[in-house]
Amino acid sequence: MSEPAQIADLRSDTVTRPTAAMREAIAAAEVGDDVYGEDPSVNRLQEVAAERCGMEAALFVPSGSMANQVAIRSHTEPGDAAITAHGSHSYLYESGAAAALSGVQFTLIGQDGLFDADEVRDAVHPPNDHYPRTRLLCVENTHNRSGGRLFPFDDFGQVVAAARDAGLRVHLDGARIFNAEVASGVPVARFAAEVDSLSFCLSKGLGAPVGSLVVGSAEFIHRAHRFRKMLGGGMRQAGILAAAGIYALEHHVKRLEQDHSNATRLARGLSEIPGAELVREPETNMVLFRVPEVPSFLVQARDRGVLLGAVTPAEIRAVTHLDVDAAAIDAALAGIRDALA
Known about the structure:
Helix content is 42%, strand content 16%. With 341 residues, it is α/β, with parallel strands linked by helices.
């Protein structure tokens, strides 16, 4: 029996493929040895990223997980504690790296990716030798596990202020921060101005094949550069990857509006399908929904060319991206309806 024709891969926005124009940029990239600081395309990407975020400097790394872990290691010392939300990527989806690589333990707060200033204050350990020193607050925007939720800017400012009052540094895991910018209207630079470091991914909604950036002060990035090397993230002729990132930042930010629109289209369609229950209305490019018998449903959907993923035993996540247009969303809805029939 032949495999079904793929209608839509909605497992993640990491499945995107470079566009034809991005491939041309990759092919034309100037390259050098980035470990020596001599790759002109990498240097240009780092300059563009820092400028876009209003920061002094940036560092190109292979992945979002490495970006977060380089930042955590740069802000802390072994035995420190960091505060973050329940279900945050740096805690839940990075193989325990903060503990294994930086000797940092997390204090978890909030619900569905959000928390308030009082929760930050309450999570800071007292200055007592029995406790780890709380040194860092990590905020994720948008929040992956809760379905691409936005951290509202005013609330963000309040939790950062609470962290500052407690003497903490602040890292913003902005893997999808440009989705937050497009959805909220708040420029990335305004979020970045509140924090000590920010990371963002090129290989998700922005559609590049590989890579993330860490941005911060020149002093911070100098320290982060050492930890990138320590973690094996030094790359050589990485300009072919950086060129894709430059193209993505120049051409793929505004188009995220289409992904958000398609997520809304998907959510509206799901609300009309018997057996499908929305967890909440989408805020960016992710839709969380429930169905009876998740494992069998995923198989039935796959058999109809619709690829989806489960984030909990009871919840399914669908992620829109540049390789899925409105017509594919409609076809996916038909496949989901048939799978639930």
